[in-house]
Fold this sequence. Notes:
Blueprint: H1 3-18, H2 22-43, H3 51-67, H4 69-92, H5 105-126
Amino acid sequence: MPAYPALAALLAICSYATGEWPPFARALLAGLALFLLFFVMAILPGSGMGFGDVKLAGLLGMLLGWLSWTQVLWATLATFLIGGVVAVLVLALGRKGRRDDFAYGPSMLLGTVTALAAPAVLRLVLA
Length: 127
């Protein structure tokens, strides 16, 4: 949880340095939105999601929100897609059962990196 005020302070410094405060407000709103989304998913019966995933979602939401709502959306969609594929593979290989907990953090991080890197990769491919 100490990462929240640390990241907020760093983003506030960036807003102060650039003189642009809308990205800071968007970062805070996106962090809250993803925190709440993942919190609701975590408290659903049988979700298998832990509170660590909820905390990570809020931080990633702040980081992505600083950039744009589009980045938040793409990263969230990529996270669910990657997490779903990994879950199906883990179940198919018999590593875990349907009722077991699932570490969603790696999928969240990979979804974020994918959303951040995708525009640059597409520019290279289409050039």
